Amino acid sequence: MSMSPVSPDIAASMSSSSFIRKMFEKGLELKKQFGEDSVCDFSLGNPDVPPPAKTREVLLRIADEAVRPLGLGYCPNAGIPAVREAIANHLAKQQGVRLSAADVVMTVGAAGAMVSFFRAVIEPGDEVITPAPYFVEYGSYCGHFGGVLRPVPSIPPAFSPNLDAIAAAITQKTRAIIVNSPNNPTGCIYPLDVMRRLADLVDRVNEERAKIPGARPLFLLSDEPYRAFAFDGAVVPPVLPLTKWACVLGSFSKTLSLAGERIGYFAANPSLPDHATLIAAVTLTNRTLGSVNAPVIGQRLAAALLDESVDLDVYDRRRRLMAKVLSEAGIQFEMPKGAFYFFAKSPVPDESAFVDELLKERILVVPGTGFGFSGYVRLSCSVDERIIARSAEGFRRAMIKFRS
Q: What gap in Å lies between CA 307 and CA 325, rounded to an integer?
């Protein structure tokens, strides 16, 4: 009998690895077999719109500075002070709360921010609540430290969080509620009244916990990498003004098409009790998890491009074209108000059958089960419009199979 070189929990994770990656790998096989132009791959949210034009100018300037002593050396673990200050000023305008560099930690993407936060606050057995469907990696991010993800189904077709169910799911072990708006995979933007009620719930829970010796607080953690992707006049409500227990994290992977540069941030409400201790803890875990500090080039690049953005009109055109293609095929969906995904209803309860039928048409989508919500499929609009248009006949043919 052979001995496994990996831990049991990681072995279990590997056996049920991300549906997104599985479909992406299936796409590579199909492209190799049938050719790149014959496959319509909507599986991966990899931003393909070019970075802002100013990026080249900034990179050249950084290159000149990099050849100086320590130009690419270690920086403070929380990030370059000037960059933290720039991010704080940017978030202050966005969130409507006064922030300083002391409120911000630069991280290795939004994922690095969340993992560092969980390492700082999670103990084995602690629970994290999130509305479902949800980004698939949340379970791993808290699970690495013994945390348990507790998804709470949202209310279709708009997928607004079920606040009563979230309230019922909170226990003394609950340490955080994650919200992701605009949402991956649904494209839903949570309205201000929903966010206010959620913040009020967090406040009420913490008021009760404050009466219990040794109790620890409940955080409202807002994951915002898609904040800039809001369409048709939709507004993404700021979270920090709603409760002192709110923290925000995000990245520049999507807004600046810098996904591979791995640059993100964590910010805590300055009114949060013992705020400095939390920031110091996230700074420590950011370092000791192996990151040491966020990439220096990425920090400087992000700070210089804070007022820039990729061409969001490109994503909006794709969104509208995708809506047309799906509608003409007879596929039901709620028009996404944000991000660059569609969460479309499967014509049959077991969406894997629909996924398989689409594969026969060389169309790749991700089953909703991978996001904790079966009966739906996710499609990424981070693809060329020609691919979306080319998929129309395949979607129609697949749907005909389920009408017969």
A: 34
Note every long-range contact of 287-292, with CB atoms under 8 Å and residues 24 or more positions apart, other chains counting.
287/77, 288/119, 289/112, 289/115, 289/116, 289/119, 291/107, 291/108, 291/112, 291/116, 292/74, 292/77
Q: What is the DSSP string of 96-163?
A: TS---GGGEEEESHHHHHHHHHHHHH--TT-EEEEEES--TTHHHHHHTTT-EEEEEE-BTTTTB--H
Q: How far apart are the first and last CA of the chain?
A: 50
Sheet holding 104-107, edge to edge: 104-107, 264-268, 246-251, 219-223, 174-180, 127-132, 148-153
- The full DSSP string for 1-70 is -PPPSS-HHHHHHHHT--HHHHHHHHHHHHHHHH-GGG-EE-------SPPPTHHHHHHHHHHHHHTSTT
Question: Token pair for residue 169?
Answer: 């799911």
Q: What H or E segment, with its residue span, contains residue 341?
A: strand 341-345
Residue that is written with structure tokens 């660059």 in the block = 340
Computed from CA positions of residues 346, 358, 37, 28, in that sequence, does the dihedral angle turn out positive or negative? positive
Q: What is the pLDDT of residues 206-260, one digit of tens each?
A: 999 999 998 999 999 999 999 999 999 999 999 999 999 999 999 999 999 999 8
pTM for this entry = 0.92
Q: Residues 145-200: pLDDT tens digits?
A: 999 999 999 999 999 999 999 999 999 999 999 999 999 999 999 999 999 999 99
Domains defined along the chain, listed by start = 8-51+311-403 (3.90.1150.10), 54-304 (3.40.640.10)
Cβ atoms within 10 Å, residue 147: 25
